[in-house]
Structures are given as structure tokens and as C-alpha cells.
Amino acid sequence: MYQVIISNSAEKDMEKLPSATLKKVGIAIDQLPADPRPFGCKKLKGTQENLWRIRVGDYRVVYSIADRIEVIDIRRVRHRKDVYE
What we know:
Structural class: alpha+beta
Distance between the termini: 31 Å
Oligomer: single chain
Order of helices and strands: EHHEEEE
């Protein structure tokens, strides 16, 4: 089972979300420890980091996976038009 760590910037992003979206994002994040690479996730290209993303409606959760120590680090939770900037 992986441990989930949410960065300060991701927490700030989540504070700005509408309540219905926040609930869906919370459910998606809660499912990550059991399966850090769920169906539909994608590895992000163009970066040296091991970043992945999952879709939650029009929002994206960007996170890194450290398989050796079994840690998932949530980096960003933003609307799809803003997340990749």
C-alpha cells in the first residue's frame, strides 16, 4: 500500500475547487494507494520527473510515484486548461 503526500501547492489548489469537484477529487486520491497507476492515467512527457496524471472531470491531478519507498506525491490539482503551464 502506497502512502499519499499532498504538497502545499496542491492543498491550495484543492481549497479553490467547487465542493462537488473537491469530493470527486478526494475519492480519486483515496483510491491511489491501492492502485497508483489506475486505468486512464498517463505519464507526462517533457519533464525529468516521474510525473503522472489522472482525470477527474475537467480537472487533472498531477502526481509523482516513488515505487521503491511506496510514496505518491500529489503536486497539482487544477483545471485542464491551467495544469500544464
